[in-house]
Specification:
- It comes from Amphimedon queenslandica (Sponge).
- Residues 60-83 are annotated as: Disordered.
- This is DUF4817 domain-containing protein.
- This protein is mostly helical.
- The chain has two domains: 10-62; 85-128.
- Helix content is 58%, strand content 0%.
- It has helices at residues 3-7, 13-26, 28-39, 45-62, 85-99, 106-120.
- The two termini are 29 Å apart.
- The model is unreliable at 1-7 (pLDDT under 50).
């Protein structure tokens, strides 16, 4: 497990809600210490501060409904897929290549995307006058 993976192990919605509520009631520093000792892994202070602010914002939103805040789902991260449904097809194809033991690099990814788009939407690629451009950027 990489260092980035270790840093994300506390971010299930229920664990986040526990940190958020504890930080709102007891402060972010105390929440960091408490959950770092409880879960035997480091919870950075900026993370606890961010969770606390998310919790307080959600509390304001749900004040009208009267329901307690039990969990706050994580937000979608990164750029949205530009090819929508084709994006998942390309991802599944690349994953099948990896599972077959084939080395996947940028050139293979771009070629796979171009091939799938040519097969499904032949006139959409920029090389034939369409609006979809396949490239590193």
């Amino acid at each position: 497990m990489s260092q980035n993976d270790e840093g994300r192990t506390y971010s299930t919605p229920n664990e986040r809600a526990r940190i958020e509520k504890y930080a709102a009631e007891n402060g972010k520093t105390r929440a960091c210490r408490h959950f770092s000792q409880l879960w035997k892994r480091n919870i950075p202070e900026p993370t606890a501060r961010h969770f606390k602010n998310e919790y307080l914002d959600e509390l304001k939103r749900q004040r009208n409904t009267g329901k307690p805040v039990e969990s706050i789902p994580t937000k979608q991260k990164g750029r949205p897929p530009s090819l929508s449904r084709l994006d998942t097809v390309i991802q599944e194809f690349i994953e099948s290549l990896r599972l077959a033991g084939i080395l996947v690099n940028t050139a293979i990814t771009l070629a796979a995307a171009e091939g799938i788009i040519k097969a499904r939407l032949p006139g959409k690629l920029q090389s034939v006058g369409g609006d979809i451009r396949i490239g590193k950027d």
